[in-house]
Specification:
By secondary structure, the chain is α/β, with parallel strands linked by helices. The chain contains seven helices and 15 strands. The strands form five sheets. The chain has a three-stranded mixed β-sheet, with helices on one face. The structure holds NG,NG-dimethyl-L-arginine (DA2). The site of NG,NG-dimethyl-L-arginine has 19 residues, from loops. This is Dimethylargininase. It comes from Amycolatopsis silviterrae.
Length: 281
């Protein structure tokens, strides 16, 4: 970016739904980051999660909370429980039986909060874990969790164009471990994204290059510390504290990195974005 004019980045206020990790544990392993033989602390997880929530509030965003449920240790990863675009909600259906019951708690939360346009999916769909809204199209990951048929279902239910992307590395089992949107735009060409190319099949890499020629390309080191699990409001980019290299490169492009320690939640395979379901209206 040297010598180039960096455009001013404009934050927009967001509304997030989060779930405190009061019952956090790693009792089972459904992704390569989880090791039930290693100790985890729900207290540390709650402290880190609280810092994340308060960071969003400090940045001027609204955070709603859903009550956690005993026996659902992964419920903290709220992003896997719904996709909301223009007030229309597509619920989730989990691949792992250990997480199945989470979907109903979130369905009820949406109904109790006035979201009448709500559809529960027939196909396996781990929501914003595999869906990323660019402002015009929904980028949709598959390969490990979300069924490819869920992409067509999301297009039909949400009424937005869906672009399928194939994930190929089991460590990056959800799209939100390999890509996030820095700045949305109603025109695809001007939306800004960052992604880790090696997490995608060759064909999907070509799709991403074609759609987002100015994307920030992340390195293996950025991906390994869950740097691609960031949350951007168009200017402020919340990242894991280890992702300083990526943060520095985003700063060169006019973004403001905001670091949080999410190390305890990473033991279950999650980062800032996984804890954060965005409610778009
Ligand atoms: C960033 N990612 C991957 C998420 N969107 N969610 C984290 C889910 C973690 C949970 N143990 C699981 O394996 O489902």
């Amino acid at each position: 970016m040297q010598g180039e004019v960096v455009p001013p980045r404009v934050p927009t206020p967001r509304r997030y739904l989060m779930c405190p990790p009061r019952y956090f544990a790693v009792d089972y392993a459904i992704n390569p980051w989880m090791d039930p033989s290693k100790p985890v602390s729900a207290d540390v997880a709650v402290a880190q999660w609280t810092e994340l929530r308060d960071t969003y509030r400090r940045l001027g965003h609204t955070v709603e909370e859903i009550d956690p449920q005993p026996g659902l240790p992964d419920m903290v990863f709220a992003a896997n429980s719904g996709t909301v675009v223009d007030g229309r909600v597509l619920g989730s259906r989990f691949r792992a039986p250990q997480r199945t019951a989470e979907a109903e708690h979130f369905r009820r939360w949406f109904l109790e909060h006035g979201y009448r346009d709500l559809t529960m999916p027939e196909k396996i769909n781990e929501a914003e874990g595999d869906f990323a809204w660019t402002g015009r199209v929904l980028l949709a990951g598959t390969g490990f969790r979300t069924d490819p048929a869920a992409h067509a279902e999301a297009q039909e239910v949400l009424g937005v164009p869906v672009v399928s992307l194939q994930l190929i590395d089991p460590r990056y089992y959800h799209l939100d471990t390999a890509l996030f949107v820095l700045a949305e735009a109603t025109d695809t060409a001007t939306a800004q994204i960052v992604y880790y190319p090696d997490a995608f099949s060759p064909g999907s890499q070509r799709v991403l290059r074609r759609m987002f020629p100015d994307a920030v390309l992340a390195t293996a080191a950025d991906a390994e510390c869950f740097g691609l699990n960031g949350v951007s409001d168009g200017r402020n980019v919340v990242l894991p504290v280890e992702a300083t290299d990526l943060g520095a490169r985003l700063a060169e492009r006019g973004y403001e990195p905001v670091y949080v320690d999410i190390s305890e939640l990473r033991k279950a395979g999650g980062g800032p974005k996984c804890c954060t379901l965005e409610i778009r209206k």
